Amino acid sequence: MLQNHFHAAIAEAGRGQFDSAKQHLTTVIASLNAVNTYAEWAPISDLAKYGLITA
Q1: For residues 45 and 37, what is the distance between their CA atoms, to the nearest angstrom?
Q2: How far apart are CA 30 and CA 16, in angstroms?
Q3: Residue 42 DSSP SS3
Q4: Which pLDDT tens digit goes with each residue over 1-40?
Q5: Please, how many CA atoms are within 13 Å of residue 11, restricted to the half-sphere of its CB?
Q6: What is the DSSP track for 6-41?
Q7: Cβ 7 vs Cβ 15: under 8 Å
Q8: First to last CA, the chain
Q9: Is there a contact between 20 and 12 (Cβ–Cβ < 8 Å)?
């Protein structure tokens, strides 16, 4: 999801659609903030187990 919204934001910005790009970036930022909050108290293994990170 993050990757899709990030690429969409870049594409929209390239087309001069800054309002749409901002909406996509807001989704990316909100998602990263949620994962960061979860990561503060969840074991790292849970982050990978539930697909929040892949490495």
Answers
A1: 15
A2: 23
A3: coil
A4: 888 999 999 999 999 999 999 999 999 999 889 888 877 8
A5: 7
A6: HHHHHHHHHTT-HHHHHHHHHHHHHHHHHHHHHHTT
A7: no
A8: 16
A9: yes
Nearest 5°: the CA angle 21, 34, 18 is 5
Domain ranges (residues) in the chain: 2-49
**CA of 34: how far to CAs of 13, 16, 19, 44, in Å?**
24, 29, 23, 15
pLDDT at 55: 56
* C-alpha to C-alpha distances, 41 to 20, 23, 48, 55, nearest whole angstrom: 33, 28, 14, 20
Q: Which helix (H) or strand (E) holds 45?
A: helix 44-49
